[in-house]
Amino acid sequence: MLTLEQLQAGLVIPIDKPRCWTSFQAVNKVKSTLRRLYGIKNIKIGHAGTLDPLATGLLLVCIGRATKQIPTLQDGDKVYTATLVLGATTPCYDLERPIDAYYPYEHITRPMLEQAIEGFVGTIEQVPPIFSAVKINGQRAYQYARADNPDASPTPKPVHIHSIAVTDFRPGTEPPANSELRTPNSELPTSHLYNDPQGTVPRHLPQADLRIHCGKGTYIRSLARDLGLALGSGAFLSALRREQVGSYTVDRALQLEQVEPYLAGLAPLPSDEA
Q1: Which of 62, 196, 207, 271 lies at 20 to 30 Å from 72 by C-alpha?
Q2: Active-site residues: which are they?
Q3: Cβ of 42: how many Cβ atoms within 10 Å?
């Protein structure tokens, strides 16, 4: 087991965050494990880059003096894999909220998507999602979103996207009989919305799998929204996974249940198992 002095000297633990866990909950899991193993209550701990609750993948948890590395780690490039649903939107651009509008999608093809993507490679101006932790006039954007404040809007900011690749494309099928589901009108009455439980994806909508290599501060949810607009439709994310941060990769990360054996010195990081 690591000594208290070694912990305080600094440790970065790569974790594979599961779906429906917040980044804060994952850090608290590590913190409670430290308390149980070492009997310590006060030690610096934080993470380098928030992952949305529905996103999975690499979360870097920094302990002790390693918390000083957080700004540098956050500045590192990221690699994500994502599933894009075309022909519909949600208020938060992922599945944390139900679909709020449907749009035409029959015209979208893989070549069309690949051509649209070219316009998002390089340095672009991106508006963060209103359901996010960015600040508007000193308040978190999601606080305005939950208060249903229509006047609040995050400020656009420059981000850099190195590359986007379409790794799979699944065309849409015949839509439901009610053609009004596809009306490009954000003011659709609720009776016209897809009557399915929150968190599911209508099977008739086309989907695409993407691999994105980007710089710091890039919101993949916003990229999904903007791609939908560029295609003359709507879009949102049904899945998002962070594969890499700087030199750290998710295939060398711990599952949450492996954190305690690792800190107790009973199991190595996956990178040490070769």
Answers
A1: 271
A2: 52
A3: 6
